[in-house]
Design goal:
The chain is of the alpha/beta class. It contains 14 helices and ten strands. The strands form two sheets. Strands 6-5-4-7-8-10-9 form a seven-stranded mixed beta sheet, sandwiched between helices. The chain has a three-stranded antiparallel beta sheet with strand order 1-3-2.
């Protein structure tokens, strides 16, 4: 028997919810905060630094935004991080909320705020580099506490096969780790680029490639910005268990879109949103996984279109998501 759809709110409740949303967003500073949160999740003190506000004033604005349903707060480790709330499909205000986010995402932040956010991202990125520098030797063991490669290898391979890349394809993997997935890419592609910010992990990937005898793999120390600086144009960009380590995943979506040829695919294997905050300290995670709507919003902002998706539940309470996005043909 088919289930009945969830009932819509009563008219008076719908108007009240919409009025609260409009009130919460009816302030230039709060709109700018929402614009900043479109770039990623930020802690209260980070937002204070970005906007030059004292903590009580920022906390007040965040409280108003939360009451309006425009942001959500989550405790991650010892800090509280804020991110934009995802519109609820059954809520009549969802269309207004989605339109509001789309409108402010097209508007620039003040130069000083942008510079402060860039500095915060730089600090996060440096912390990430330092973590991988310290733990290049045991990173795989730490990552295996969340998900061993063998557990998600089939799903990542299926995503690759579904992309139907030609034998002449040129592919970029960002953050190849110990190089396990390079062994899937190299036999299927004409050329494979592997970029990693950790020279220690890059050495391990290089040893794996050399042992397997692949001569079409080029390993480079750097990230997507380094790939852009080289002027690469590839048929696919691969992120396997990478996005939750980077300060701003939305930036990687934009970089990937710029690196892809028309019709190319971005392949993402990562964690669904979870509550296990121990991963931040033990595994160097900056994000506790992602929700599909979050990835879709970043993709749309980058000009990418969602394609295939699947999911894998793990016994330790984590869920792995497999998502692909394509760059439309020009």
């Amino acid at each position: 028997m088919a289930l009945s759809p969830a009932p819509l709110p009563a008219p008076e409740d719908a108007f009240a919810g919409l009025a609260q949303l409009l009130k919460g967003g009816g302030d230039p500073l709060r709109l700018a905060i929402l614009r900043a949160l479109g770039l990623g999740s930020f802690g209260v003190l980070e937002l204070c630094e970005a906007f030059g506000l004292k903590q009580p004033a920022m906390s007040h604005h965040l409280k108003v935004l939360a009451q309006a349903g425009l942001v959500t707060a989550r405790r991650e480790g010892n800090a509280i991080f804020y991110r934009r709330a995802l519109p609820q499909s059954q809520d009549p205000a969802a269309l207004v909320q989605d339109a509001l986010f789309s409108a402010i995402d097209a508007m620039p932040l003040a130069d000083e705020v942008s510079a402060n956010i860039e500095r915060i991202r730089g600090e996060r990125a440096e912390a990430c580099r330092a973590f991988f520098a310290r733990h290049a030797g045991d990173f795989r063991e730490r990552q295996d506490l969340i998900a061993e490669y063998r557990q998600y290898a089939d799903g990542a391979r299926d995503l690759l096969l579904a992309a139907q890349l030609p034998a002449t394809a040129e592919v970029l993997e960002v953050g190849p780790g110990a190089g396990e997935f390079l062994a899937e890419l190299a036999p299927r592609c004409a050329r494979v680029w592997a970029f990693d910010i950790s020279e220690g992990l890059l050495e391990r990937a290089g040893a794996r490639v050399q042992a397997d005898g692949y001569t079409n793999v080029t390993l480079v120390a750097g990230d997507t910005r380094a790939a852009l600086a080289r002027g690469l144009a590839v048929d696919a960009v691969v992120f396997n268990m990478v996005l939750h380590h980077v300060p701003s995943p939305g930036d990687l979506f934009r970089d990937a879109a710029a690196l892809l040829k028309p019709g190319g695919a971005m392949l993402v294997t990562d964690l669904s949103r979870h509550e296990q905050d121990w991963v931040r300290e033990h595994c160097g995670d900056l994000w506790q996984g992602f929700e599909d709507a979050e990835l879709d919003r970043w993709a749309r902002a980058a000009g990418l279109v969602p394609a295939n998706s699947s999911y894998l539940g793990l016994r330790n309470g984590f869920q792995v998501l497999f998502r692909s996005f394509t760059r439309p043909l020009d």
